Amino acid sequence: MSNKAALLPLILEKVFEKYSASNIDNNLGDLFVELNALLTARVVKAALNLLDHQCIVVYHNIPKTKQVAQVNESSSKIIWLFPHVNYCTCTYFQEQVLGAKDPSTSSYTCEHVLALRLAHMLKSDKVRFEELAFSKLKVLLSNFLPEDNHQSD
Ligand SMILES: [Zn+2]
């Protein structure tokens, strides 16, 4: 049954809601205790690491209605994310979230998605926001569309 899988995102939303309300700085410890319990300490720790190393750049248009985030885990490992979308191309997400054979041990998300979520919630200055003209943003976003004109070899 997928009941368990459906409950976790709901509880997570409640946790984020609770802590985004007010004086988050005084409750950071509690927030991370709850996140550890829901998402495992490994994912939470890795997410904080990404924030600490300022690995995230959010590209956006002028009214910030369109955004796409870049996580630079290393110079050779770059991951693209859409804010508020629980999807990632990383190995962990593909194997532990999408590919888990046993739903009772599967994960809900990876450190990249969590880091971006936390960055927005904490209004973290560890994330760089970069304004892009819509035409440039469109080019960026087009990388995520199916390549219907792709010339296959
Ligand atoms: Zn990921």
From TrEMBL:
Q: What's a GO biological-process term for it?
A: double-strand break repair via homologous recombination
Q: Where is the SWIM-type domain?
A: 67-121
Q: Name one GO cellular component term.
A: Shu complex
Sorted keywords for this record are:
Metal-binding, Zinc, Zinc-finger
| Keyword Metal-binding among record annotations | yes
GO MF, any single term: zinc ion binding
Zinc-finger listed as a keyword? yes
What are the coiled-coil residue ranges?
A: none
Q: What protein name applies here?
A: SWIM-type domain-containing protein
Q: Which organism is it from?
A: Stomoxys calcitrans (Stable fly)
